[in-house]
């Protein structure tokens, strides 16, 4: 099998700057977390269940990505 080296969204576009795998994964994690919180009306316990991760993991990621509202 041949490895595809071009980006999927625009095969003709050449990337001039390197991408960070870690930052792309973190961006996707943030999207999923925000979607889960939206689906569960901000309920962290239910959002964790929706994401199928432990509540403590979700709380850690909320702090890491600074997604918690200051009260």
Describe the structure.
It contains 3 helices and no strands. The chain starts with 20 loop residues before the first helix and ends in a 7-residue tail after the last helix. Helix 2 crosses helix 3. The mean pLDDT is 85. Helix content is 52%, strand content 0%. It is mainly alpha-helical and 71 residues long.
Describe the SSE topology.
Layout: H1 21-39, H2 44-51, H3 55-64
Helix pairs in contact: 1-2, 2-3
Q: Note poorly predicted spans.
A: none
Output the radius of gyration.
16 Å
Largest sheet: none
Overall pLDDT, averaged? 85
Q: What shape does the CA trace take?
A: elongated
Structural class: mainly alpha
H/I helix tally: 3
Order of helices and strands: HHH
Q: How many E-type strands?
A: 0
Distance from first to last alpha carbon: 54 Å
The percentage helix is 40-55%
The amount of beta strand, in percent, is under 5%
Question: In summary, what is this structure?
Answer:
The protein has 71 residues and is mainly alpha-helical. It has helices spanning 21-39, 44-51, 55-64.
Please name the defining characteristics of this protein:
71 residues, mainly alpha
């Amino acid at each position: 099998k041949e490895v595809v080296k071009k980006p999927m969204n625009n095969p003709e576009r050449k990337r001039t700057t390197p991408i960070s795998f870690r930052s792309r994964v973190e961006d996707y994690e943030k999207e999923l977390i925000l979607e889960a919180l939206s689906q569960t009306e901000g309920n962290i316990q239910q959002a964790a269940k929706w994401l199928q991760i432990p509540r403590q993991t979700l709380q850690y990621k909320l702090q890491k990505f600074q997604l918690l509202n200051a009260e």
